[in-house]
Amino acid sequence: MIGIAMTTSTADSSPSTPIASTPAARAPALPAVRHSWIDNLQGQLFGVVMIAFGMSMLHSLGLIIGQIAGVAFLVTYATGISFGMAFTIINLPFYLLAALRMGAAFTWRTLAAVTAVSVLTNVAGNYISYSHLDPAVGAVLAGLCVGIGLIGLFRHQASCGGMSILATYVQERTGFKAGWLLMGFDLALFATAALFLPMDRVFYSLVGAITMNLFVAWNHRYEWYIAR
């Protein structure tokens, strides 16, 4: 291995004096960085659009996704009410947790994000149609879109409601990865979905949910991200 530590060989230097040759040793400490309001706004908008785009793919295939959105999809398929309405109603109790644990600003940002995702998912069919979308490909693409959208919200001090509020709180307080907690919830959700949906749709939905959760678990790490 090269560059961990080196010693000088000149006569006027002590052989025991280390030379810091790694970038980490030479680089100065990075200063704390804070997002401006425009930084947070663009990040939150990106997250909302990517999540809604992923939801529209899932809806077109008759699939579900993990977390509270998956519950909203099941309610939609069972009752015929819009996804946006179901998603909004189911999220209501979680705003209290957000207000008590995460603060008013986080709660308002989450409320705005949930509302925007609900509206955009409902109207996406007016602007995007999928004449052919393979269920396996659609599930993976939707999982990636929703996953990167959630990270966009998390990194800019918001969430998409529901279990992501709880997962974000637990990760910030304990270090337990948000993705793993969400995956546990999803296992229970998909066990329930198997009672109501055809098994092929449950399988493809599970592929999308696993893709999303693994993406979040591997990429949303608090220690990797400097700006606050």
UniProtKB/TrEMBL annotation:
Transmembrane segments: 45-65, 71-98, 110-130, 136-154, 175-196, 202-218
Domain of life of the organism encoding this protein: Bacteria
Keywords: Cell membrane, Membrane, Transmembrane, Transmembrane helix
GO cellular component assignments: plasma membrane
The name this protein goes by in its record: YitT family protein
Membrane topology per record: Multi-pass membrane protein
InterPro entries: UPF0750_membrane (IPR051461), YitT (IPR003740)
Disordered: region residues: 1-23
Main location: membrane
Subcellular location as annotated: Cell membrane
Pfam family for this entry, one: YitT_membrane
